[in-house]
Amino acid sequence: MFDALVKKTIPVAPKKTRSTREIVETAIKEKKIFSMSGCYPVLRNCLQRRGWVEKTICRKVTDANKLVDPDGNLRFKARLLFNVDPNFFWIPRADAMNYDLLSEDQIINHFQNAKCFTTKAGLCTLLDSMCWFADVDPYSFVPRCYRLRQKDERQEFIDDFIQTAARGILKWVSDSNIPDYPCDNTQPGQKRWIGKQSHTEWLSERTTPQPTVKPDIILKAIDICKTYLDKLEHKDIDKELPKPKPPVFWKEFLRDYERVIHDGATIENATLYATRCHSLLHTLEAVCPQIDIEGERNIWIIKPGAKSRGIGIICKNNLEDIMSLLDRDPVIPNDDFCVVQKYIERPLLIHGTKFDVRQWFLVTDWNPLTIWFYKRCYLRFSSQIFSLKNLNRSVHLCNNAVQKYCKNSPARHPDLPDENMWHDYQLKHYLKLIGAFHAWDDIMLPGMKEIIIQTMKSAQDKVVHRKNTFHLYGADFMFGENFQPWLIEINASPALSKATSVSSKLSAQVQEDILRLILDRREDSKCDVGDFELLYQQVCI
């Protein structure tokens, strides 16, 4: 009866019908039926070349008639496979599938509960528990962050903002007796200035009479930093708790801080305190792993906790502005997971322009934890010259989803790519040009690998374990001026699109290599897995 229905409703040539039926029956016998959600033409073609047949999901048999299918072959296959369960699922996200309905041998490309590290809020929460799973300080490789709508974390952020401002004053004073213009840690082959567009601009400001701030701000900054150190060393336990400072104290301190750092005011007799501030900064360096990257301008990046592609992300350097966002911003009030994260003010730049690195890795098992690292990665550039005075998204967000709408600045270096992407080998070439011959192999690459391992180990008990499951993740890294990597976030569904010539080539390659690793390796453990390398495999005890 079923065959009669097929013949009645689908006009397919007899020879073609016979051929299609043979292909489908062979695929069913070999367990090579797949189902795919989303537009992945490369992946689809790779599967079909391996003899896999796609099942188009229909709620009922007659729905096959509604499929757009000029020659009727797609509809015919949909009917033949209506009662056949796919052996391989590729879905856009975990919540698109009811995992309770899966049999043990069905393969799927998403683990459940990966949100514990693939959302901004999830990663922020994970950092607090990381010390229990790894002998590492997470804030040595992830910029510190807070969930603004959590009352305790909101207060921690306010304290952090004030302490960062105090360290900014110490840095300003420590550099006040340096005769040269304020160059922040010159990299080999390049020079840039804190918050300045050019040396000429800096000189013009220097020759212009500047407003002054009393040296009380220095004493306040020293007091704030010493109180912070005492708290870390638990010295405050033996002391009588000081009376809380009145709100006006903090308001005046931040006002004077902004006058100095943002408005260009000078501090009276600052050079008299330079040695003292320098010494205190040296002490702080031992307990503040982010002191070098945090800069002086106290910039923070505010992110909706569970969105992607740069949606809703903004940069701010004023405490009142940041806190007021909770009440007036159209995105953040509805986002209970809003995260504020310290912005890296002293990043590694290429020709004076900000960039980040998208690094793929794949987890094939959580018990034992098994991680595969992709040997290829790509860089994403900003379309604008880096500046800490301009907080526009086009300067500071390197996401292609943001930059594709921006016009490249004509002032950028001519060697930067028009499409704002580089292959990793182009980065290595640039590093050699500036004399950093071993930066990639000795610092950047090993650092990224170790960060991925430690983060996955911390998430291991939170992700739902399931055999015959794998998951491709996209980690976004930035680098400090010393080439040390910093994890910004991890994406659960990294783009595999043809946005640029760089991403087009690499995304096609990684999709082919995924199938080599997941499917071909099942039949031959020594098969070629492309550019994937086994990064970590937990030893079972």
Automatic annotation (TrEMBL):
<dbReference type="GO" id="GO:0035082">
    <property type="term" value="P:axoneme assembly"/>
</dbReference>
<dbReference type="GO" id="GO:0070736">
    <property type="term" value="F:protein-glycine ligase activity, initiating"/>
</dbReference>
<dbReference type="InterPro" id="IPR011761">
    <property type="entry name" value="ATP-grasp"/>
</dbReference>
<keyword id="KW-0067">ATP-binding</keyword>
<dbReference type="GO" id="GO:0046872">
    <property type="term" value="F:metal ion binding"/>
</dbReference>
<keyword id="KW-0963">Cytoplasm</keyword>
<keyword id="KW-0282">Flagellum</keyword>
<dbReference type="Pfam" id="PF03133">
    <property type="entry name" value="TTL"/>
</dbReference>
<keyword id="KW-0966">Cell projection</keyword>
<feature type="domain" description="ATP-grasp">
    <location>
        <begin position="475"/>
        <end position="519"/>
    </location>
</feature>
<dbReference type="InterPro" id="IPR051437">
    <property type="entry name" value="TTLL_monoglycylase"/>
</dbReference>
<keyword id="KW-0206">Cytoskeleton</keyword>
<dbReference type="GO" id="GO:0005524">
    <property type="term" value="F:ATP binding"/>
</dbReference>
<dbReference type="InterPro" id="IPR004344">
    <property type="entry name" value="TTL/TTLL_fam"/>
</dbReference>
<dbReference type="GO" id="GO:0030317">
    <property type="term" value="P:flagellated sperm motility"/>
</dbReference>
<keyword id="KW-0436">Ligase</keyword>
<keyword id="KW-0969">Cilium</keyword>
<protein>
    <submittedName>
        <fullName>Tubulin monoglycylase TTLL3-like</fullName>
    </submittedName>
</protein>
<keyword id="KW-0547">Nucleotide-binding</keyword>
<dbReference type="GO" id="GO:0005930">
    <property type="term" value="C:axoneme"/>
</dbReference>
<dbReference type="GO" id="GO:0015630">
    <property type="term" value="C:microtubule cytoskeleton"/>
</dbReference>
<dbReference type="GO" id="GO:0007283">
    <property type="term" value="P:spermatogenesis"/>
</dbReference>
<dbReference type="GO" id="GO:0036126">
    <property type="term" value="C:sperm flagellum"/>
</dbReference>
